[in-house]
Amino acid sequence: MAKDYDVIIVGAGPAGLMAAKTAGENGLKAALLERKIDIADIKRACSMMVVTLTGKYLGERVFLNTRDRRICFPRYGFSVQYDGPHQDFYTWSIYSHKGNKVQLGDYGQNVKKGEAGRISAVYSKGALLQGLLDEACSNHVDIYPGYNVIGCMKEGGSVTVMTREGRSFKGTFVIGADGRSSKLARTLGLNRDRKYFGTATTLGYEMAGVEPPEKYALFQIFLNETPPMRIWMTPRAGRDEHFAMVTSLHPGRDHAAAFKRVTSEGHFAPWFKKAEVKRTLPAVGNMLSHIVDPYKDQVLLVSDAVWCQEAEMTGAVVSGWKAANAVTFALVEGKISREGVAGYLDWWRDEVIKQYDYKDMIGNAVMPYMLNPDEIDFLLGSIKKTLPGMLDPYETPKLVGGALAEIMPMVQKERPEIFQKLGRMRTTPLEVVFGSCMRAGFPTLSLS
Fold first, then answer.
1. Tens digits of per-residue pLDDT, 199-213?
2. Closest CA to 19 of 294, 307, 322
3. Which CATH architecture describes the domain 88-118+196-288+371-441?
4. Could you tell me the pTM of the whole model?
């Protein structure tokens, strides 16, 4: 017989664990279901960056309190335990395949400033998850690792969650934090109105011995590959290592071969002359528009399950916290309904849907689909000034766009064909830009 809970949380990433911790702190009878056996073991490619320590995201300015080992969310009024390492980084360098670059933040000057000069920092996701898990356990949350949730069903005033292992769990509410390929979103039909733009595939490399020009920096490299591919590279927290991810929107591309080409020949090969691969980590996820209404049948969806691409750690933790508090108010007030969890739904509408256009996030990948590698090299080489340092997936493109606008008269005169393509970038629908990606991808990962 299914055990009754006030709330069942599905998924033990940062959002799910934060929801479980918060529900337990609030005195709710809570269960957390996770398909992994070892919840804190990271087996998926992830750069583990804090978005952001130098600006606002979701209206929040996150603080890393190294003295007391906490990550603080002062606008929302909470903090989380973090006993793991971190590594500040001081610039974001966007490279062409030939080595021309746009730089956000002056590396040398920022290093001298220490924490005050950092763009942001990388952290250990495993340590964050373990800390949240420990707090959830100390607050009497029942933890069920190794259970793969396949769907849920509303029955009377409760919701039954079913697992592939044949186990069922009953709760008054469910918080779905089961990621970009959320089974709860699919089985509830909440993905039907979402727009699909392609399937992003990633192969990540944890490496020792990498020697980039700036050791503590975020690197983004446009590769000389067709269809387009990019590399993202960051330092790892607490280790003298880097993490490099090769990404593509065309499943089936040979990521390993592309990485071998970049690391053995051309401008970037010297960076990897002494490099040693410690571990490889894959990731697959669809590019989708937001879910506008994340509630159905006493189920609230949070974080990557409803976000365009990904919520980042900041969005995950905040959304898990907001959802668990909304459920608490609903139970206390006896409003087992949409009205009862209005606090979360209003926040989602006002702070995410109205403030963050999913087209801006997806638009970050447009340039290599409208310009060839040599044209990108020309543009990056033409921006001579260092831009303000910032790590924000929505605000940073505006800085780069402003720098491009300043050189447009020169581009129009010297490279009119690039000028015309840039004009089309602003007007071409994303469905057209990513048409080949959509045909090559796997929308059924999320939509059905």
1. 999 999 999 999 999
2. 322
3. 2-Layer Sandwich (3.30)
4. 0.96
